[in-house]
């Protein structure tokens, strides 16, 4: 059984830490720049600019 | 404000205030032989002061309009005013401590409360938590409602958060003057104030989640992500760094759960992420909403804003150990912090670049409109100070910069140049909107404020850069025999002119804030000097008159 002591945590941080952070970064970039998401994000950027100042019902 | 609450809600408000007063009374009685007694009394007075106007208006007529038809802006309005009030207090304390460093006799009274060690946290808490925190709460309520197209959740909860937060700030600052501190930078308040902030902060997070749950706009705008990261991470940081055991429930003193290098690491994990999530993520939320709004252009790349959000959230959490270079902290942890600090430059510059590219094509507006210029300069300083921060986190650079005024200069490039500038810009956008005025009372005074703030920041930062580098170099200059060339006092004498310049820079910044307060007051009063002075809002067609042949 693996013990969560200092040595083991350091080993995990020094090895797998790199890979999960990289995987997450790649995931975020793919999500943000996925061509299909472009319209959705462009609309989101424009959505705040209308002059409407009442809650929608 | 009270007129917009139903009679049931007014009664509930009284019950909450009664509970707070009871808590204060218990604390005060338990701590009657300690400084805690005074804070118990302060809590009771605070609750009673809020209860009196509600008691007077208990039977006043209820609101007749359908409240769901309008956004809930009363808490935002008060938040803006509180923020400006704290700005004046915090900046004044800053000028005072800066003057004390140049002229140590300027304490005026020979009393412990006026010593540098007590005034300095009053300055940092006043500007960071008083000015910055109130501005974050006020703007987050405004942005959250507009981007969700839904009214804020709850009638009393927003008040509880805003006023409860200010009670925390009051406890903190009055505590410093009395000598109450747990000696952790930016986390000075003792256990009872810390526990109170946890309650307030959970309520803040609840407002955010509950309002988002009733949003009518399916997409959650990026500003809200930043505000949520700010609320969530600050809660985690605050709770963990303040884990402590009080000596007794009748005493202010508590002992930290950590000791030695673990305590130092926890503190700077907290300290650096307070910069990251309180002073960066929250204010980026402000920037991503108010800058496009004022420029009337969508953010240059919405997709880049998502990438920088996740970059900032996940990288900042590792950077804290760069505060502990050359200490007992294991070498690899120092290197980890240094590496993440350098990598942080990518998402930071993505945000700064995104903001500046949004303005690309609207530079005419930036030229004519000081409000937008505040936001533009904020983005520039954000880019500059994140570059400087990454640079200073490198161990070799840190060996020169650490413990010198360079650090102070860096912090103020961020705090004055980025945080305060984006806040003033947002407030100048918000005040006319919130009080139903067409524009600020005087755009000339906004202009005056802008130049005072910019000039003050530049004088401050350049003074500290010079002072810090000289100090660092003098401390590491050796003569042929291998002993230090300069004594500590030699370096102190060399710093003196820069300390005078720094106090002047701070004074300019404070004067700018005072001009801003006057302008906001006159705007709220409904006066308008703009027309008489011949000012006009930025005219999108201004250049047409220059077309050849006309």
Describe the 3D structure.
The complex is a heterodimer of chains A (57) and B (550). With 57 residues, chain A is mainly α. Chain A has a domain of 38 residues. Chain A is 67% helix and 0% strand. Chain A is elongated. Chain A starts with 5 loop residues before the first helix and ends in a 10-residue tail after the last helix. Chain B is mainly α and 550 residues long. Chain B has two domains: 60 residues; 462 residues, Cytochrome c oxidase-like, subunit I domain (Cytochrome C Oxidase, Chain A). In chain B, 71% of the residues lie in helices and 1% in strands. Chain B is built from 17 helices and two strands. Chain B has a two-stranded antiparallel sheet. In chain B, strand 1 and strand 2 form a beta hairpin. In chain B, helix 15 packs antiparallel against helix 16. The radius of gyration of chain B is 24 Å and the shape is globular. Classes of the chains: A mainly alpha (57), B mainly alpha (550). Chains A and B meet through helix 1 and helix 2 of A and helix 4, helix 8 and helix 9 of B.
Task: List segments of chain A where confidence is low: pLDDT < 50 over at least 5 consecutive residues.
Answer: none
Mean pLDDT of chain B: 94
Main sheet specs of chain B: 2 strands, antiparallel
Our measurement of the CA-to-CA distance between the termini of chain A, rounded to an integer number of angstroms, reads 56 Å
Overall strand count of chain A: 0
Total domain units of chain B: 2
Shape of chain A: elongated
Order of strands across the biggest sheet of chain B?
1-2
Shape of chain B: globular
- H/E series of chain A, N to C? HH
Under CATH, the topology of the largest domain in chain B can be stated as Cytochrome C Oxidase, Chain A
Question: Helix and strand layout, with pairings?
Answer:
The complex is a heterodimer of chains A (57) and B (550).
Chain A: H1 6-33, H2 38-47
Chain B: H1 7-30, H2 36-56, H3 74-102, H4 116-148, H5 157-178, H6 191-213, H7 222-241, E1 244-246, E2 254-256, H8 260-295, H9 302-316, H10 331-343, H11 345-359, H12 363-368, H13 370-392, H14 395-401, H15 405-434, H16 443-475, H17 488-525
Antiparallel strand pairs in B: 1-2
Helix pairs in contact in B: 1-2, 2-5, 3-4, 3-17, 4-5, 4-8, 4-15, 5-6, 6-7, 7-8, 7-9, 8-9, 8-11, 8-13, 8-15, 9-11, 10-13, 11-13, 13-15, 13-16, 15-16, 15-17, 16-17
